[in-house]
Amino acid sequence: MLPLLGVFACKKSPDAGSLDVIPVGEFASLTGATASFGQSSHKGTQMAIDEVNAAGGVLGKKLKLITEDDQSRPGEAATVVRKMLSRDKIVALLGEVASSRSLEAAPLCQQAGIPMISPASTNPKVTEVGDFVFRVCFIDPFQGTVLSKFALSKGWKKVAVLTDVKQDYSVGLSQYFKKHFTANGGEIVGEQSYSSGDKDFKAQLTAIKGSQPDAVVASGYYTETGLISLQARELQVNAPLLGGDGWDSPSLVEVGGKAIEGSFFSNHFSVEDPAPAIQGFLKKYRTKFGAEPDAMSALGYDSAMILVDAMKRAGTSEGPKLKAAIASTKDFAAVTGKITLNAERNADKSAVMLEVKGGQFRYVETVAP
Ligand code: PHE
User: Could you list the mean pLDDT of each consecutive 10-residue stretch along the chain, which spans 369 residues?
Assistant: First the structure.
């Protein structure tokens, strides 16, 4: 044992060798506007950590999941992540769902030399922050293309776009949709925006109504989309809405009710998929939580399992080595599909299109990258 080396190793990135447990950080919106994101991803993440510990842990130790609530508030993600990096000496960070919040944390992890794995943030900028930042989901240039191809296949040529300008995710998704759509013969007949937390979308929807679109892309989160659908129908905007993974929450139909029926969105997985990995996960999750998992639960689970797999292959939890092992993740059999991390530290995975039908999210089709 070389104590001096131990001291140096501890300074930059703590190695599990010097600790009784391996501290893994997680930041999530457990409360606030998008609480369902954090609640879901946290349940999935916790389930994975519990399973690993029940099977004996990793590197001969138990994992300790340290979870901080960022309250869905801008600025809070950076605060709690800073705390976990300095106070808790986490060896890796899992989170967040919302791209804007992952973008707050990514530079902190990059600077600290601590790997971060986002389960569900799809904005490309997240992993562009640096080589310590990864994700286990696809990115929005792909998701935007999937939505555009879907619209074109439906014969929707004139589309209006409604964007949440407070979310990097929504801004990016609208932009990528428009790019592919207009390059392939579609026409954007209206562009409107709102800010997270808004409750009244009537002015935007009235303007959209005048442009008589075949469909309306609503690229924001479920939190506003339910209300948007209600107000659209009230104003006789009867075109289907089209959205991305940010719609994935039971509250979309709780709020939207009949108004959101017949609308479509892209997502990371479908609970109707008969794949054994998905059905097995559903069963375990229902038993443990008495609730239905959504994409964020599955991706939270996958993010933790990818981390554990990398720790085993690295034989250490020391930052740079762990980072290298995560980067070389190849054909990992995850719940949401086979995960290989590409050179940009993103996962090239299929998306599914879902339709809101009978209050449920029904599988329509799978779109490969
Ligand atoms: N993709 C969204 C984002 O980047 C987050 C999200 C993922 C929301 C999955 C719901 C389901 O902000």
Answer: 43 57 98 94 98 97 98 97 98 98 98 98 98 98 98 98 98 98 98 97 98 98 97 98 96 96 97 95 97 95 98 98 98 96 97 97 95
Is-same-fold flag (4-137+275-350; 140-267)? yes
Contact 40, 48 (CB under 8 A): no
Q: Which of 37, 40, 94, 97 is the best mutation target for the ligand 1 pocket, counting ligand atoms within 8 Å of the beta carbon and taking the most?
A: 97
Helix (H, G, I), strand (E, B) or coil at 194: strand
Architecture of domain 140-267: 3-Layer(aba) Sandwich (3.40)
pLDDT reported for residue 4? 45
- pLDDT value for 316: 97
The first and second tokens of residue 332, run together, are: 């990992």
Burial class (CB in 10 A: 0-12, 13-18, 19+), 86: exposed
Domain residue spans of the chain = 4-137+275-350, 140-267
303 lines ligand 1 (CB under 6 A): no
| Domain boundaries 4-137+275-350, corresponding CATH code | 3.40.50.2300
CA distance 303 to 128: 18
Q: List beta partners, residue 264.
A: 242, 355
Probe residue for ligand 1, chosen from 245, 249, 266, 271 as the CB with the greatest number of ligand atoms within 8 Å: 245
Q: Reduce the DSSP state of residue 3 to 3 states and report it.
A: helix
Ligand 1 in reach of 248 Cβ (< 6 A): yes
Helix-helix angle 168-183:99-112, to 10 degrees: 110
From CA 214, how far away is CA 189, in angstroms rounded? 10
User: Are 228 and 209 within 8 A, CB to CB?
Assistant: no
Residue 43 makes CB contacts below 8 A (sequence gap 6+) with 285, 288, 289, 291, 293, 297, 300
| pLDDT for position 5 | 45
SS (H, E, C) 97-143: CCHHHHHHHHHHHHHHCCCEEECCCCCCHHHHCCCCEEECCCCHHHH
